[in-house]
Amino acid sequence: MTPQHQDSTRKKSVLQLDNYQPQPIEKKWLTVWQENNIYQTNTETNDKPKYYALSMFPYPSGKLHMGHVRNYTLTDVIARFKRMQGFHVLHPMGWDSFGLPAENAAIQNNIQPAAWTDSNIAHMKKQLAQLGLSVDWDREVTTCKPDYYQWTQWIFIALYKKGLAYKKEAPVNWCKNCETVLANEQVIDGKCWRDDSLVVKKNLSQWFFKITEYAQELLDGLDHLHGWPDRVLLMQKNWINRSIGAELSFPVDGHNARIEVFTTRPDTVFGVTYMVLAPEHPLVKQLVPAENQVEVEQYVQSASLKTEMDRLAADKQKSGVPLGVFAVNPFTHQKIPIWIADYVLVDYGTGAVMAVPAHDERDFVFAKTYDLPVQTVIAPDTENNPDSFRVENQAYTDAGILCHSGQFTGMTSTDAKQAIIAFAVAEGFGHKKIQYRLKDWLISRQRYWGTPIPVVYCEKCGTVPVSESGLPVVLPTDVDFSLKGQSPVSSSKTFLNTACPTCKSPAVRETDTMDTFVDSAWYYLRYIDAQNTQAAFTPEQVARWMPVDQYVGGIEHAILHLLYSRFIMYALSDSLSTEKTKLPKEPFKNLLTQGMVLKDGHKMSKSKGNIVDPTAIFNEFGADTARFFILSDSPPKADFDWKESAVEGCYKFLCKVWRCIGDQLAVLDDPLQSQLATAAFTPEISYSSLTGNTRLLYQTTHQTIAGITTDIAAEYQFNTVISKLRQFITHLSKFNGAAEAEKDPQCQVVLAYAVSSAIKLIAPVTPFIAEALWEKAGGKTSVHLAQWPVADPEALQQDTVNIVVQINGKVRDQFSVESGAEKAALASKAQSCQKIQPYLAGMVVVRTIVVPEKLVNFVVKPE
Q1: At what angle do helices 747-762 and 718-734 cross, to 10 degrees?
Q2: Residue 12: band (very low, low, confident or very high) from pLDDT cuts 50, 70, 90
Q3: d(Cα 797, Cα 645) in Å, to the nearest integer?
């Protein structure tokens, strides 16, 4: 490697340490790092263990905010730490650059989305460089560039060929404001995840990924993600939501039709008193008689205007209308009315419900509203006479004993479930079924700025995927952005018409684009092989680097991005793994979900007007100050409260670091000055022979090394890393090396090691000042390529411990004693403490309790 540091005399370097000036320091080292490519990851075989550190990549909105700074600094500290520990580190960065904001900007500002996006990327990339990230920019990816989305299209075709991509007409979530379709996961409390506008249902022909094919595998896989937060695992489990029950078939009286329902409570089937269809259910139009048609159509229309949240809300008045036809309960042979009601959703289960008002709260409220029968069929197992039990004021929803249930009367709910399913199977109107709440991933979007779906429609061949040689299907630029309700791509005169890849006949292209979550569901794979022009990646490289060892991002992506990424990785692993090259199924081994950055009690956002531009911090105090501050206040998982005053305090501390290291370097003899900044400076020191303050400095140094190593490697408690750095620098700055050298001949070596360790320990957190100090100490290569210090186990043993003295359990005094003191010695010293003498006067000690290294407690009573 080209040497990065220039030789200089020791006296000159010490003089230069008088004033800490972050801006010229940071400008210099940015240039040096870039010129020497010290963060470039060599893809050739390496004997070092691999470590893949990754932040969720940003959307290029134009400017970084402090939430970005927190996310990327957390990952950068981990990457730098692992590199110094001897790992072969991959730490890439890119841009999640498709999406609606760019399209909106194009409409508002009459600018091409590509130009708007490129400009934002250039600005944000400059800011990220200023932040000092140890990123391998040779692996940069931009999802809106054809050299990336070509491979997104390739993945679509691979899924299509496996039967995992398909098109169907379905009711979809339609955002009126965005005028596009949203996936279920993008609807939060009935509103658009991006702009909080209301979402309604609309029937459209759409493309889906069959994520449900992997529902059980995705659920089972969560049990092996030991490095993920419990909160995220629970959110994914609840979203997939496996239910075991029965699918039962109810014939419609007088019609050649059957209503299929899924229920987890087949034990209640004798209590069905009506059926409910979702207003959008396809049987509604088929079954409604002429005399009910107007009322039913009006209700269907009104239901389509309600949000899913409103339809499911427990506190909303239940509404519905009778369809005018009856179903037949196959167990009782009784006719039961069929209603439509908006509390049933067509894309949940089968879109139909067997209503058991006695044992379901929603059904009970609906039945009471419309004066429908309530038939009790489950009684508490504590009832002496189950047949006499009646549901009156509220539904009984627990398990119990069956009553009024034909041949199943008297069974427990558990036994009856199995018996009823077996009966339904034998009679041909039901079967056992496992169902998931998870629905297939809706990927069609009726907007421009996204990856074109690589499909054509041919009158002869039907739906045909584009051949791999025809990729990328490039997004056209001759589009009309003013189109509403359909993709602007459809307005292109150069895009729509093409030739069928199979028969070469005239064909038309699909004009929908893909959900941007498809782009981000596999980007971590492209980083591994970003320069490959022949394939998305090579399986051998993926097998080598995957899974990502540490992934860092926001909790808001717990379901959307993380679940989609897991699905894509599972599908690609199944498709591309060979006996020789096995691809892992899980993409992310460990996950850190950082809290939000708050200002004035609110999340920083443009809409709140409370964004803090990190460039202002860089310009006034330096990027190291911004990094130090953003890690200092809270654990990464907690929210971070922005305090302007604390930024200056962090800057002052770095000034203290600058002065402290300079002062201690001036004390050291020339031979040690030339050694301490070597990559692996580990002098032989006899800890047992050290005395006084020199011994204490050595012990403090190694306790700090051990503590910070644990805080980063095991706990990610970066706020306590900052605390330990503050304490260590304070201790080091007070150490009088000149005076102590006269008392202990090993003082100079201990001090040199303490200074070397201090610079290395601050390096992951504040890389610029560490690099500058390393150069002043004589370093010839980067401190970030130096060896992380290792704690001396002997120095971690405490020399003295503090012993609490209690009288009848109340603390009355304390004293210090050498670690390892015997119980008898502790009791004797405790009894001689002056402060406890008044409490012993006139008393007799009936018991002495000694807890070594902690306390002595005298149990006393009057003489």
Answers
A1: 150
A2: very low
A3: 38
Give yes or no for a contact between 83 and 33, defined as CB atoms under 8 angstroms apart.
no
Q: Are 404 and 270 in contact (CB under 8 A)?
A: yes
CA 183 and chain centroid, separation: 19
* Region 262-278 average pLDDT: 97
Model confidence pLDDT, tens digit, residues 675-702: 887 877 888 888 888 888 999 999 999 9
Tell me: the pLDDT tens digits for 84-113? 999 999 999 999 999 888 888 877 888 889
> Residue 15 above 60 pLDDT?
no
Mean pLDDT computed over 405-424:
97
Rounded to two decimals, the pTM is: 0.85
Residue 42 zone, left/alpha/beta (φ > 0; ψ -120 to 50; rest): beta
- Return the closest-CA partner of residue 132 out of 26, 268, 261, 245: 26
Task: Identify the sign of the CA torsion 334, 339, 344, 346.
Answer: positive
CB environment 211-240: b (16+ within 10 A), e (fewer): bbbbbeebbebbeebeebbeebbebbeebb
Q: Which three-class secondary structure state does DSSP give residue 48?
A: coil
Type of residue numbered 580: K
Nearest-angstrom CA–CA distance, 599 and 582: 46
CA distances from 347 to 94, 282, 308, 319 (A): 36, 12, 11, 19
What pLDDT is stored for residue 380 in this prediction? 95
Distance CA 584, CA 83 (A): 24
Nearest to 408 by CA among 390, 427, 423, 430: 423
Tens of pLDDT, residues 754-768 = 999 999 999 999 999
Q: Residue 749, CB half-sphere, CA atoms under 13 Å: how many?
A: 12
Scored b (16 or more CB within 10 A) or e, 433-463 reads bebbebbbbbbbbbbbbbbbbbbbebeeeee
Q: What's the pLDDT band for 188 if we cut at 50, 70, 90?
A: confident
- SS3 label, residue 815: strand
Please check whether residue 450 is in contact with residue 96, taking contact to mean a CB–CB distance below 8 angstroms: no
Tokens of 458: 């041919």
CA-CA distance, 462 to 364, in Å (whole number)?
48
C-alpha distances in Å from residue 67, one per residue of 61, 64, 98, 636:
13, 8, 21, 11
Q: What is the DSSP code string of 121-189?
A: HHHHHHHHHHTT----GGG-EETTSHHHHHHHHHHHHHHHHTT-EEEEEEEEEEETTTTEEE-GGGEET
Tell me how far apart the alpha carbons of residues 631 and 827 are, in angstroms, rounded to a whole number.
Answer: 44
Q: Give the SS3 label for residue 413.
A: helix
Cβ atoms within 10 Å, residue 102? 24
The single residue listed with the structure tokens 């909105």 is 61
Structure-block tokens of residue 113: 């989305």
- What is the Cα 644 distance to its own chain's centre? 28
Distance between start and end Cα atoms, the chain: 81
- CA distances to 299, 416, 801 from 244, rounded to whole Å, are 32, 14, 58
Question: CA-CA distances (angstroms) from residue 861 to 808, 812, 813, 830?
Answer: 9, 16, 19, 18
Residue 100's pLDDT is 82
The pLDDT-based confidence of 8 (bands split at 50, 70, 90) is very low
Q: Which two tokens stand for residue 361?
A: 């709260």
Half-sphere exposure at residue 548, Cβ-oriented, CA atoms within 13 angstroms: 30
Question: Can you list the pairs that 477-485 forms with residues at least 24 positions away whose Cβ atoms lie under 8 Å?
Answer: 477/112, 477/114, 479/448, 481/103, 481/106, 481/107, 481/448, 482/107, 484/179, 485/179, 485/446
Give the model's pLDDT for residue 18: 58
Report d(CA 250, CA 355) in Å as an integer: 12
Q: Could you give the CA distance from residue 557 to residue 563 in angstroms, rounded to a whole number?
A: 9
User: What's the pLDDT at 607?
Assistant: 63
Secondary structure class of 227 (helix, strand, coil): strand
- Residues 6 or more apart whose CB falls under 8 angstroms from that of 455 comprise 160, 207, 463, 464, 465, 466, 509, 510
